[in-house]
Specification:
Length: about 150
């Protein structure tokens, strides 16, 4: 099962996670001010970040990448468009182009899980996108940048 919840740090967190960190805590892993997302969930939108953040293309999946206010202004509408499309599509494969030919969904089990549970998961994915947009909007406005700490 894919966990699409954007969550705060918890000691019992398991699995590989991406961390969305504030500039003051970018080098401090597992900060209480950060938000966390399972790698399986982030894989569905990772292509958006990869294709709009030149620094992410240099090992961003495993490293730390800054997202500036200007870069976010290009990423946000792409996420919103994807979210709007989620409301309209009936199956996962209709998102192939929007999800960069699924090239960031590394685990075939994640893809198959999405195909089988698409009606449920598309709602969860949409909520996740909304949560990410909300968190980025709030913090980019305040700090002018945030960081993605890869797995």
């Amino acid at each position: 099962m894919i966990n699409f919840n954007l969550q705060s740090w918890q000691e019992e967190m398991s699995g590989l996670t991406f961390e969305f960190a504030l500039p003051t805590f970018k080098d401090e892993r597992r900060s209480k001010t950060s938000k966390y997302l399972a790698e399986s969930a982030f894989s569905f939108i990772e292509g958006v970040f990869f294709n709009h953040l030149p620094n992410y293309q240099n090992f961003g999946h495993w490293g730390t990448t800054e997202v500036s206010n200007q870069q976010w202004s290009h990423i946000r509408p792409v996420l919103q468009t994807l979210n709007n499309k989620l409301e309209q599509v009936e199956n996962f494969y209709q998102l192939k182009t929007d999800l960069y030919d699924f090239q960031f969904i590394f685990d075939e089990d994640w893809r198959q899980d999405m195909v089988i549970k698409f009606a449920e998961y598309k709602v969860n994915l949409s909520q996740m996108i909304n949560q990410i947009i909300e968190w980025f909007d709030k913090n980019i406005q305040k700090y002018n940048a945030v960081f993605i700490n890869g797995i």
